[in-house]
Amino acid sequence: MILGTTSPSLLRNATSPSRRGLGSQGKFPILPRAPLLGELSSGCETERLYRGEVNQRKRVSLFMKIACISLGCPKNQVDLDVMVHILLSAGHETVADLGEADVILVNTCGFIESAKTEAIENILEACAYKQQNPELKVIVTGCLAERYRSQIEEEIPEVDAVVGCASNKAIDTIVARLFQGENHLESYGAKKDFPLGGKRVIGTPAHYAYLKIAEGCNNRCTYCAIPLIRGKMRSRTMKDIIEEATSLDALGVKELNIIAQDTSAYGIDLYGKYELPELIRGICDATNIPWIRLLYCYPDKITDELVAEIRDNPRVVKYIDIPIQHISDRVLKAMNRHGDSAMIRDAVKRLREIPGIVLRSTAIVGFPGETEEDFEELCKFIKEAKFERFGAFTYSREEDTPAYDFPNQVDEQVKQDRYDILMQTQLEISEKFNEKRIGKTYKVMCEGYDPVAGSHYGRSYAEAADIDGKIWFSVKNPNLRIAEGEMIDVKITEAMDYDLVGEAILNI
Q1: How do residues 273-327 score in pLDDT, each as one tens digit?
Q2: What is the pLDDT of residue 153?
Q3: SS3 call for 342
Q4: What residues contact 261, with CB distance under 8 A and at least 6 apart?
Q5: Residue burial 155-164, b: 16+ Cβ < 10 Å; e: rest
Q6: Is the peptide bond before 368 cis (omega within 30 degrees of 0)?
Q7: Residue 54's Cα: distance from chain center in Å?
Q8: Which of 78, 70, 160 has the alpha carbon at shortest distance from 107?
Q9: DSSP 240-290
Q10: What's the CA gap between 179 and 285, in Å, rounded?
Q11: Which residue, 120, 226, 447, 461, could crosslink 14 as a Cys pair with Cβ 3.0–4.6 Å?
């Protein structure tokens, strides 16, 4: 079977079907998260889905086994959580083995070139399962589906349905229509109709969850396709968010990761001002969740009130993600970033006044027109700021964005060279940060046990789930297993590049 044709717009970088993480851990044959399996709890607006169990809810006469592949950011995972709830409520069942599935749902990312390539490769592999199961249906959802509507159907005709983000809420109807004989379905809606919330089945491990507080973005950075895909920013009501946080608390969630495209802008569209601090207070008043973590907060919206809330609220972990993207005023202006280098430096300075604060940031190298002097300025700032956590991207030239047509596009090799230099700079910063932690004791949330390494692992407040390193720790009793989500004290004994090694302090 020939899976589509090469296209300069969509399939140019796709390779033979391969999935990162396919059985590589010996756990779940999925990418990057396990397909969702499970049984639903009762009595909560938000429900927990446990891997390895079978859904026992009432089933419709025609129920299907559905395998889910979720790509991209945590915001995309939340979208899938909502879809899984809808599918399970309709009587369908989720399975981990793609070979057992009647339906493979690929929830895609379409943000940058590497994400698009990964999405296409996963779609191709899903379609390849039709060789052993001709009745299999493949559904593509998410950002790639929203952004490349016609191209997916034209270039990959094996896909049975392409579903835009506004149609997520109709995913059960789309599955039913496919098995009633309809072919090559497309379903889209207006961006203003993208679901802002809804009942979910949580796809993360039981001890932490993501809470999406808004959809879309108003920043209009010249390199970014998100407003094209997701539309303008739309905040959820504070009442709706707090109700979901309460449900998550009832499920035993111990870490709540608050996310949006621009988390710090929360509330400006609904309430006329930035209301993230007030939202945090509302969540804390309504729940007992011990760790609340803030991700994707833009530096131009780091208000004194937000700094004070992070500093003074003991349940807000002293960690914040502030994407800067660059420090050169000339590049920042070309990117249409709000604020300038002085504003970024001021935000970092004010946040550094919080005792024990851990800062995470990102930057883009190789933006059109970026000179060696611009890049050197960025490297110098990274050395000065000493972000404990930092990631970089090479500029991805995205069609339909203003920067696509900018002059002085940077050579790909130059981009890669600059990326390598910047990340080597960060490696040295990370190593020094970790070395300073030797001998200190941290409250660590256990996330599991690796039998190969013979060690438990987890995270302190200084490590965010899915993106930062781990703390590997031993216990004196080799037969003792610490439960996932249990918080224990760990004394750090050894530092690596990004991970730490320690010993659990247990009164057992």
Answers
A1: 999 999 999 999 999 999 999 999 999 999 999 999 999 999 999 999 999 999 9
A2: 87
A3: helix
A4: 75, 214, 215, 216, 217, 226, 230, 233, 296
A5: bbebbbbbbb
A6: no
A7: 26
A8: 70
A9: HHHHHHHHHHHTT--EEEEE-TTGGGTTHHHHSS--HHHHHHHHHHH---S
A10: 47
A11: 120
Neighbours of 451 (CB within 10 A): 7
Residue with token string 């303008």: 232
DSSP 443-459: EEEEEEEETTTTEEEEE
pLDDT in tens, 418-431: 999 999 999 999 99
For residue 343 the two structure tokens come to 């504003």
Strand partners, 311: none
pLDDT-above-70 percentage for the chain: 88
* Entry field: residues in the chain: 508
Long-range pairs, 493-498, Cβ under 8 A, ≥24: 493/438, 493/439, 494/438, 495/431, 495/434, 495/435, 495/437, 495/438, 496/434, 496/469, 497/427, 497/430, 497/431, 497/434, 497/469, 498/430, 498/434, 498/468, 498/469
Contact status, residue 41 vs residue 48, Cβ threshold 8 Å: yes
All structural domains of the chain, each given as residue ranges with its CATH number in brackets, are: 46-193 (3.40.50.12160), 207-316 (3.30.750.210), 322-435 (3.30.750.200), 441-505 (2.40.50.140)
Tell me the pTM.
0.88
φ/ψ (deg, to 5) at 185: -80, 145
Which run of H or of E encompasses 146? helix 143-147
The number of CA neighbours under 13 Å toward the Cβ of 17 is 13
CA dist 16 → 109, 124, 126, 127 (Å): 19, 8, 12, 12
Residue 214, token pair as written in the block: 């808004």
CB atoms within 10 A of CB 355: 7
Q: Which residues pair with 231 in a beta bridge?
A: none
Tokens in use for 20?
């990162």
Which pair of structure tokens corresponds to residue 110?
């379409």
